[in-house]
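2024-03-11 09:14:02 DEBUG pipeline.ingest accepted 1 chain
2024-03-11 09:14:02 DEBUG pipeline.ingest length=444
2024-03-11 09:14:03 DEBUG pipeline.predict start
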Amino acid sequence: MLVNRRRFGALASSAAISPLVRSRQANGQQTDAASAPLETFVPHRQITHARAKAAPNSRPQHHWFGYYDKQQFDPTGMQVLAHQVDFEGRSPTAADRIRVGYVDTAREDTWVELGTSLAWGWQQGCMLQWVGNKGREVLWNDRQDDHFVCRIKDIQTGSVRVIDRPLYTISHDGRWGLSVDFSRIDNLRPGYGYEGVPDPNVAQRAPKDSGIWRVELETGRSELILSHADVVAIAWPDGSRKEEAWHYFNHLLMNPSATRFVFLHRFRPKFDPDTLSFEGNFVTRMISANLDGSDLYVLDPSGNTSHFIWKDDETVTMWTRPDGLPAGFYEMTDQSDRMRRIGEVKMPVNGHNTYLPPPYQDWILNDTYPDRTGRQTVYLYHPPTDRRVELGHFPSPPAYRGEWRCDTHPRTSVDGMTVSIDSPHEGGRQVHLLDIRELMAQLS
């Protein structure tokens, strides 16, 4: 049976997060929990709250950052970006506007608003992130009139410039960005695209005028470097091109030097463009390319690529299930067949993996989805020594599942000494910080 996404979203919009139940105390803290208590093994504190101290009777506000491959901290580590919204428990509509800003941890966790957005989802927000390494500019996606855009704000002058395309990812130096078709993603992967702009290619299985655009952030100039039709022409291992399926791109990420990027090419076997309904799971392969879209290489043809991160300019660490091998985390070398499994015992389940910055770049920061106790675990793993160090277990109430789940998505400050997570265990989804400075000193 086809799943009617629009009808599902309408039904879900009337649902509210069920009341949380007070649970046991751990580490001197009382926590809202689904079952097992909060446990943390490094210094931990919450920096956003449902109600501000100055307005205790105000409508509850929920905060989160979103995906794990974006820069949330400024270079000082004091200004921590976040989204703010006054509801939970349903899909966003085209009319739902969120606030974007940062928490100033040097001023008693003061919320500083930067703007608003009409282009967002629960998992990735509006792609809010710092631009470059100067700690001066912040970007986020928005909807303006009948199209999606990206806004870049100078927090010192307050000036805002608008790029005529929404961005999915940017280079570390803040020079380049990559854009995709968020309307198409919204139809084929609910929760990762944006509402409010109809897809003009909704009836096409692999459109020629839609795909991946390269964007120069300083000028806003963009060019289509890869179309859906271009990528569908690349055969799968069985020789087919899946031309009867419905194709889309998401999860783009440049390597540290911005010489290459990877993206996930996904398709759904069945989709009804009239009702925006689909059937069955998506199938995935990872493809790499030069920043101009040339020299394409199918890095993982398995159909199972999930979360990933660049380890360096040549190596991608990903959760996948290669043909004939078990599911797990693998290191794959771009433009080659070199591959090795890591963390077979200590990192056995899928999670949102990144690497700590130097001098701890051999350490992986990762998490899990809720386990049997209803908790998500955040941990560090060291492949050279096969050592795992847990940072905390964070309760995730049952209401936080599906499209509006709250994954922890662990992220680090620029110096790697502070970990930020999103967690719903206290006052709905909120942002929490974990201090790992002493831990890393002990481990080094």
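2024-03-11 09:14:41 DEBUG pipeline.report The radius of gyration is 21 Å.
2024-03-11 09:14:41 DEBUG pipeline.predict end
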